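Module 6 notes. Inverse folding takes a fixed backbone as the condition and produces residue identities as the prediction. Think of it as a translation problem where the source language is geometry and the target language is the twenty amino acids. Below is one complete input and output pair. Work through it position by position during the lab.
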C-alpha cells in the first residue's frame, strides 16, 4: 500500500536516545567546544536508523538520472566540507511538498516538489549546501543534545495542538514524519555554509538568494503548499540580502572568476518530472479522497487538511484539535482486528456494531482512551470512533479522535467520513493521469503570461506557474527562452 505525501508538509522527529552522559566536543565548522550527548559514531547510527523511516514515510522517487545528479553534486560538495568522511547519502523522495531536509550522520533528502521549483543548477546547489551545512555544523546533533538536556525526546512541528500531540501514542505511531526544525541562528549559519560550499564547487550562490523569492511567494501562494523549508527559517527577503552579501565576499576570496548558473541544463534535467499529486497513490478532489490503485474513496470533513503518506492517510481539523486517520489493520476479519485494537490501545468501549458500510463488512467501536501527558504527567481522555472495514482483501481502519471534551462536537463529522468509505467505480476517477513538468521553448518574444496561455495553462493557474518559473507574469521573455509548463492531467485544473 502506497499513499503519497500530499499538500501539507508538517513534519516531526521523535528520537529515543536512551540515557546519555554529556561531553564536550569540537564543532567541525566553528572549531569551538560545545556540549554534546552524541558521539559521531552514534550520530551516524542515528542517521542509519532514521533513513528507513524517511523512505517508508515518503517513498523514493524513481528517476535514476535525477538521483544520480543529486548524489554526484552532493558528494562533490561534501568532499570539500569540514566532514568529508561521513557516509554521505543523498535521496530524492516522492513528495510534491517543496522541501529539503537532513538527519544526523550525513543523510540528505530532496523532494521532487523542491526539484520542480528550482530554476537553475545554482539555486539547487545553494540549497544543497545549506542542508549539508546542517550536518557539518552538527545542528541535528545539537538539537537533540538540547532536547536531552531539557529532559525528553523532541516532538517538533506537530500538526496537532500540544494537548492532543502528547496523547494517544499507539494511535499516533507512524503519523509523524521525520524532520528537524532548527533555530534561526542555525539556519543563518547553514545559509553561510550553502554559499561557501556552492561557491567552492563553482556555482553562483547569488542564485540561492533568488530562490528565497520563490519560497516567499509559495508561503502564501495559490497552490496552498507552504514549504516547510520556510517555516522556521529567517525571513526570506532578509535572507536574500544576506546571501547576496555573503556571495560577494566568497567570490572575492575565491580564485575563480566565472561561476555557473546553468538554467537551461537544469530545466532539461527535470523535463518529465512528476508534478503535484500522483493520482495512482491517491488524490483529493471535490471534498473526497480517491485511491485508484486500491479502488476506494471516502469523504473529507469540510476545511480539514489531508496528509497522504505511504503508511496512512490522516486528516486534521481547522483548529488542530481533532484528527482522523486511515491505515491498514492486521488480518482479514473485522471483529478480530477490532479486538486486537482494543487490547493494544486499552480502549474503553462504550458501543460496538457490526453494521456493514456501503455493503462492506465492518466493525465499528466508540469509546475512550486514557493517556498520560509525557510532559505534565497528567492524564487525559481521548474520545475515539474507529471502524474496521473489509474490502479488496484488506482490512481498512478508519479512526477519528479528539480530546474527550470536544468529541461530541466532532463525532458526527468523523462518523460521516467513516460511513462514506466505498468502492471506487467512477472511471473518470480511476483513470486520472498525473501531471508532469514539460519544458517548452518560447517561439517569439512575449510575456510569461502570454507564453503560459499559449502553452495551454488555464487562466486559473497562471499565478501557480508564475511561481513555478520563478518570474512575474509580466516578465518579458526573448524568443528561444525555456519555461516550465505541464503535460498530462485531465482538465488542466489541479485537484
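Target side of the pair, the amino acids:
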Amino acid at each position: 500500500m502506497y499513499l503519497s505525501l500530499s499538500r501539507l508538509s508538517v513534519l516531526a522527529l521523535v528520537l529515543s536516545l536512551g540515557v546519555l552522559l554529556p561531553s564536550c566536543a569540537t564543532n567541525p565548522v566553528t572549531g569551538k567546544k560545545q556540549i554534546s550527548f552524541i558521539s559521531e559514531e552514534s550520530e551516524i547510527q542515528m542517521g542509519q536508523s532514521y533513513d528507513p523511516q524517511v523512505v517508508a514515510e515518503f517513498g523514493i522517487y524513481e528517476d535514476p538520472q535525477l538521483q544520480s545528479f543529486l548524489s554526484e553534486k552532493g558528494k562533490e560538495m561534501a568532499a570539500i566540507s569540514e566532514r568529508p568522511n561521513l557516509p554521505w547519502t543523498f535521496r530524492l523522495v516522492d513528495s510534491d511538498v517543496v522541501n529539503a531536509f537532513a538527519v544526523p550522520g550525513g543523510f540528505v533528502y530532496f523532494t521532487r516538489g523542491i526539484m520542480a521549483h528550482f530554476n537553475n543548477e545554482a539555486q539547487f546547489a545553494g540549497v544543497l549546501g545549506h542542508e549539508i551545512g546542517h550536518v557539518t555544523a552538527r545542528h541535528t546533533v545539537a538539537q537533540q543534545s538540547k532536547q536531552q538536556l531539557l529532559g525528553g525526546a523532541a516532538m517538533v512541528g506537530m500538526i496537532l495542538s500540544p494537548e492532543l500531540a502528547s496523547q494517544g501514542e499507539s494511535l499516533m505511531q507512524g503519523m509523524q514524519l521525520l524532520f528537524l526544525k532548527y533555530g534561526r541562528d542555525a539556519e543563518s549559519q547553514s545559509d553561510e555554509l550553502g554559499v561557501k560550499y556552492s561557491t567552492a564547487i563553482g556555482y553562483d550562490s547569488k542564485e540561492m538568494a533568488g530562490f528565497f523569492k520563490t519560497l516567499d511567494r509559495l508561503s502564501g501562494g495559490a497552490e496552498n503548499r507552504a514549504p516547510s523549508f520556510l517555516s522556521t527559517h529567517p525571513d526570506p527577503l532578509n535572507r536574500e540580502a544576506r546571501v547576496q552579501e555573503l556571495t560577494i565576499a566568497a567570490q572575492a576570496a575565491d580564485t575563480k572568476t566565472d561561476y555557473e548558473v546553468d538554467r537551461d541544463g537544469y530545466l532539461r534535467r527535470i523535463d518529465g518530472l512528476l508534478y503535484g499529486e500522483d493520482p495512482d497513490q491517491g488524490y483529493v478532489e471535490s471534498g473526497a479522497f480517491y485511491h485508484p490503485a486500491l479502488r476506494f474513496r471516502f469523504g473529507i470533513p469540510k476545511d480539514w487538511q489531508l496528509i497522504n503518506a505511504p503508511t496512512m492517510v490522516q486528516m486534521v481539523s481547522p483548529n488542530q484539535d481533532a484528527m482522523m486517520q486511515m491505515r491498514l489493520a492486521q488480518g482479514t476479519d473485522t471483529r478480530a482486528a477490532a479486538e486486537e485494537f482494543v487490547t493494544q490501545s486499552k480502549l474503553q468501549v462504550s458501543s460496538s456494531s457490526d453494521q456493514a458500510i456501503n455493503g462492506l463488512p465492518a466493525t465499528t467501536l466508540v469509546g475512550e482512551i486514557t493517556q498520560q501527558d509525557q510532559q505534565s504527567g497528567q492524564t487525559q481522555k481521548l474520545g475515539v470512533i474507529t471502524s474496521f472495514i473489509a474490502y479488496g482483501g484488506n482490512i481498512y481502519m478508519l479512526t477519528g479522535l479528539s480530546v474527550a471534551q470536544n468529541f461530541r462536537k466532532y463525532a458526527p463529522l468523523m462518523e460521516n467520513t467513516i460511513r462514506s468509505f466505498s468502492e471506487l467505480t467512477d472511471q473518470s476517477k480511476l483513470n486520472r493521469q498525473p501531471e508532469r513538468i514539460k519544458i517548452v521553448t518560447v517561439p517569439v518574444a512575449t510575456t510569461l503570461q502570454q507564453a503560459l496561455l499559449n502553452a495551454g495553462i488555464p487562466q486559473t493557474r497562471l499565478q501557480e506557474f508564475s511561481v513555478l518559473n520563478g518570474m512575474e507574469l509580466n516578465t518579458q521573455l526573448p524568443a528561444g527562452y525555456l519555461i516550465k509548463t505541464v503535460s498530462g492531467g485531465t482538465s488542466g485544473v489541479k485537484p
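Reference fact for the lab report: Residues 1-24, 146-180, 221-233, 491-495 have pLDDT under 50 and may be disordered.
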